[in-house]
Specification:
The chain starts with a strand and ends with a helix. It contains five helices and 15 strands. The strands form four sheets. Strands 9, 11, 12, 13, 14 and 15 form a six-stranded mixed sheet that branches. It is an alpha+beta fold and 226 residues long. The relative contact order is 0.13.
Length: 226
C-alpha cells in the first residue's frame, strides 16, 4: 500500500540522490506532496514533477491525497474489460489499469521486457472514454484512439531512480539504452510505439487494432460507449 507525505520545513527540505550525504537534487518547499517509495530513517520519494530522491523522515507528515475520480465508463458484464493485475513490480499505477482482455497479452509482453531491461513502467492512462478530457497531455489525443477500446496504455519510464516521460524525449535529456532497447523489443513482438507517429507521442503503446482490424475496433467502441 502506498504512503503519502508532505514536507514540513520552513526553510525547505533537501531532496538527495542517496541517503545521508547524497548530492542535493533540489530544495523542496514546505507542504510539497510526496509519494513514498521506500521508508526508513530516510524516505525514498517521488516528487510531483517525477523526480526521485531521499528526504529525512523527521520533516514529513502523512497525508491522504485527494484523487479526482475519472469519468466512469459504463462497464457491462460481457464487454471484455478487465482490471490488469501486474505479475511483478515492473508495472505500477496510481489508478486501476483497465484494458480489454484481448490487450492483456501485449501488456504482459511489456511487463516481461521491462523486467528484462531493469525498468519500471508507470502507467498514466489506459482505457478512457472518447468524451473524457485528458489532463496534462503533451500531445493532442487522437480522435480514433485505441485507448477508447482498452487496447493502449501510456507509460513513463523509471530507470535508476530517474523518471523519463514525454518532456525527456522531446528535450535534450539522454535516453538510456535500456529504454530504447525495451522499445525495440516490444515493437518486434507486435506493439506500436507512439514515438514513431507523425506527431510523436513518446509515452504511448498500443497493438494497432484501429489499423489492423478497423471493423473490430468499431464494434468494441460501440459496445463500450454506444
Amino acid at each position: 500500500m502506498k504512503k503519502y507525505f508532505r514536507t514540513r520545513s520552513d526553510n525547505g527540505l533537501r531532496l538527495r540522490n542517496s541517503p545521508f550525504d547524497g548530492d542535493t537534487l533540489e530544495i523542496l518547499p514546505d507542504d510539497t506532496k510526496l509519494t513514498a517509495v521506500d521508508e526508513q530513517t530516510w524516505v525514498k520519494v517521488i516528487t510531483p514533477s517525477g523526480k526521485v530522491g531521499y528526504v529525512l523522515k523527521d520533516y514529513l507528515e502523512p497525508y491522504k491525497p485527494r484523487i479526482t475520480p475519472e469519468k466512469v465508463v459504463p462497464f457491462l458484464l460481457d464487454n471484455g474489460i478487465i482490471q490488469y493485475r501486474p505479475r511483478n513490480d515492473c508495472i505500477t499505477s496510481e489508478q486501476p489499469i483497465r484494458i480489454h482482455k484481448d490487450f492483456e497479452k501485449s501488456l504482459l509482453i511489456m511487463e516481461e521486457e521491462a523486467k528484462n531491461h531493469e525498468l519500471k513502467l508507470l502507467v498514466t492512462s489506459s482505457l478512457r472514454s472518447p468524451l473524457s478530457p485528458v489532463g496534462n497531455a503533451i500531445v493532442k489525443p487522437a480522435s480514433v484512439s485505441n485507448h477508447h477500446v482498452g487496447h493502449a496504455v501510456d507509460v513513463n519510464f523509471m530507470y535508476k531512480t530517474i523518471c523519463y516521460g514525454s518532456r525527456a524525449f522531446k528535450g535534450s535529456t539522454q535516453i538510456p539504452d535500456n529504454i530504447t532497447q525495451f522499445i525495440c523489443a516490444v515493437c518486434k513482438q507486435g506493439l506500436r510505439w507512439g514515438g514513431h507517429f507523425g506527431t510523436p507521442d513518446y509515452v504511448h503503446f498500443d497493438d494497432k487494432l484501429n489499423i489492423n482490424d478497423p471493423e473490430q475496433y468499431q464494434r468494441k467502441l460501440k459496445q463500450l460507449h454506444g
